[in-house]
Structures
1.
Amino acid sequence: MASIVIMNAKGGVGKSTLTMALAETLAYYQKKSILLVDADGQMSLSLMMAPGNQLSEQRGNDLTLVGYMARSVLDNEHSDWPQYVMSHVSDVEDAKGIYLLPGELDLPLLEREMAAQGKISKTRAAARTILQEAEQYVDHILVDCAPGISVMTETWLRECDYHIVPVKPDFLAVSGLEYLRRFRSRNPEMGLAEHLGVIINMVNLHSTDDAIIQEHMRSDKDLKCFKNTIPIAPHLQKAALFSSEERMYITKYAGDVGTALRAVTNELQSLLNRNRKPDRVQSTLPPTNQLVT
Ligand SMILES: Nc1ncnc2c1ncn2[C@@H]1O[C@H](COP(=O)(O)OP(=O)(O)OP(=O)(O)O)[C@@H](O)[C@H]1O
Ligand SMILES: [Mg+2]
């Protein structure tokens, strides 16, 4: 199992969209089971992945990442994280091995409390528990983070095995990478996810500017840019809207985008295989609703 945090200090580069798309592509083509963690108070990933009524119910019962962290970190209560997980999210037919620990709008308030009470190491321990225990249930964990580096983002960035950085082909996106590089050089003793690579998203295949920026990024070997890129595709906006009726993968990710996602996902899987960690025996994630009383 690999845990991967999807982050970029820069906003709007496609972190949440790519987290969803990578999970659905891994689940659909490679039959991988994935735990998604929505670590962004904007909740984009949760809104994209889960039926609205189920998500409302989940939030009403405080069964979100924020609920889990509040109970285990601030209230010092023992809290079983699988009870907070939604099963079989995703509106894609045949991409059913996807689970979601949903986000909540109150995340910034929680982070403020965690920092005020000096609970950073406890927060990291709570995240580590999820990552370690999830190994027995799923093939991969993908964590979607807010832009910038907040308490929550730093926690996952330090606890996950790898990070992937989506970027848009613009010079400011490249400056977001510099931020991450500086962050890495600070407090190296605190641990940090290994950089798996940069995924260049929203590429206009007909733009010479985009080609120049790509070349510029690829000349920096430390960035480890993925060979394949994701084209700019207006219909991806529609993919973000959760469909109450199941849809086919090739409908949701039609044309070039689907082909590119498959290529990027194959590249990702071979990078992970190269850095292979020992296989663990898996069991099925308990049906969460049965755990919630
Ligand atoms: N390849 C693409 N082609 C066209 N639109 C895209 C593509 N990737 C993402 N988008 C769109 O760009 C916008 C930003 O994407 P997204 O919300 O995934 O970015 P983000 O990095 O998660 O943003 P934030 O920093 O706010 O969390 C969304 O409207 C999304 O639909
Ligand atoms: Mg996002």
2.
Amino acid sequence: MSEREQSVAQRAAANQEKSPVTRVFSGMQPSGELHLGNWLGALKNWVAMQDRYPCIFSVVDLHALTQTSDPDEMKARIRDMAMGWLAAGIDPEKCTVFVQSTVPEHAELSWVLTTLTPMGLLERMTQFKDKARSQAENVNVGLFSYPVLQAADITIYRADGVPVGEDQVQHVEFTRDLVRKFNLKYGKVFPEPRALLTSSPRVMGVDGDRKMSKSLGNHIGLNDSADVLWKKLAPAKTDVRRVRRTDPGVPEECNIYKYHGFFSTADERAWAAEGCRSAGIGCRQCKEVVAKNINAVLEPMRERRAGLEAHPGRVDEILHEGTKKLLPLARETMGRVRDAMGIPNRGRYGIGEDR
Ligand code: SF4
């Protein structure tokens, strides 16, 4: 971690000790089938968080437009992502789930915040550089101003907590900068959100070489059956030293051992490490234990998903309820923003209630 990243992470940790968090916001792009990387990197934290805070979770389709342009695919992915969240344990009785574009105030506030954002600040965001490299044929303005829309996603609900891994703290800091700027210039409208640091491990795919991703085809889906899971795990890469069953290995250099770290008990991890170093166990045996433990996590998700698929209207109802619940809050925030900035409220012209 660089010095700057370290200081950012320290500040975020210090923030966590301040006043209690009253509203949490987080979102995920509908970018395809959910997999173990999504579970360990975000969803598992969300499921735990919904019991601690009032949480808003958004399928951020406006963000996805910077990458996807197929309307049918977009529609299917939005629904599939919401279903995947619910199957994973996101409970609409405990939190609010909705689709970003159904609350138009996100885009409206994003424009307002754009007018306060120096170009230089956006140019420094590392995510833009990475994305611009990965989709060189489509480096659009939305991709560049993406962090401003992220800031609007948080501030439109005056959320004060944002769960992030350490590599995402920069985005929360960016939002805090914009909030301070707005409040200083126009009067206090927004609370300063803070990063709620969560464990967000880098989960490698079954190829052992690259981060787990649906597009790379190296993923284990949250909806994979036990058979499909084993078909992916059985040929998965292990430590290259273990050519024959009798060759000892180095577990720390094996991706399967990392999966043990995520899913197995301390005893099972010790068994795998010792058995690997002494060649006392084979890789197949080792993988069978990982598969058993991953299946134990996925089985309740498979069951919940089957229940949702049997009642296809239920997901739409939940998303609709989420939007209905959030619209008044978003409108109220925009009313305050408009008042503070001296631009008219729509209610003044009889075309909507901002306040
Ligand atoms: S025994 Fe387990 S940890 Fe060792 S190389 Fe094989 S799969 Fe990896």
3.
Amino acid sequence: MISILENATPATGFEASVLEVIKDRRSKRAYSNQPVEEDKIRSLFEAARWAPSSMNEQPWTYIYATKDEPELWNRIFETLSEGNRIWAVDAPLLIMSLARTKFIRNGRTNASAKYDLGAANAFLSLQATALGLNVHQMGGYDKEKLVENLNVPLDELEPGVVIAVGYSGDAEKLPDNLKQREEAPRLRYPQESFVMNKSF
Ligand SMILES: Cc1cc2nc3c(=O)[nH]c(=O)nc-3n(C[C@H](O)[C@H](O)[C@H](O)COP(=O)(O)O)c2cc1C
């Protein structure tokens, strides 16, 4: 392990001031059945649109489905791992994020594609928080099934995370183990364990 991480213990609380949306964002699992308004959905993708990317390639692609489109929503939902399906079943909006792996200009591999997709997803998440929405990213899904269900052209696109979006619901309705996680203190490594002002 890298030496500065040795003996580091995650702790609660903020060590310096940050934007309110950074404080407020949390990957919750309890969703209400209130649909996400169309203008808010557009706002989420607008935030992603303005993320930085290598060579301004903007290599993100999104497929979204609301519960009003059950066929498409289900195509995404049924690929989720069992542990995610337990709670994501209530999410009114599911988003599949994908990275375009080759540069449009020359067809060469874009080594930054997934990095840039992550930045776009982070922008989307913070915008959602500002709009009063909860966002929960998921890597737990069956990639092969998802590729099949959404006819993803793998020579162009690489699946990223599936993102559940919606308004927060009643955590009491979650199974006990998930309810506990919902209410558990948020832990982070201290800055001193990952920030240095000197060389290795
Ligand atoms: C790439 C990625 C994959 C994740 N996959 C899952 C997942 O499959 N299921 C899940 O419940 N949470 C998943 N999460 C959420 C993390 O568990 C969560 O972000 C982390 O515990 C920190 O909690 P916070 O987002 O509330 O600050 C994922 C997050 C990221 C960024």
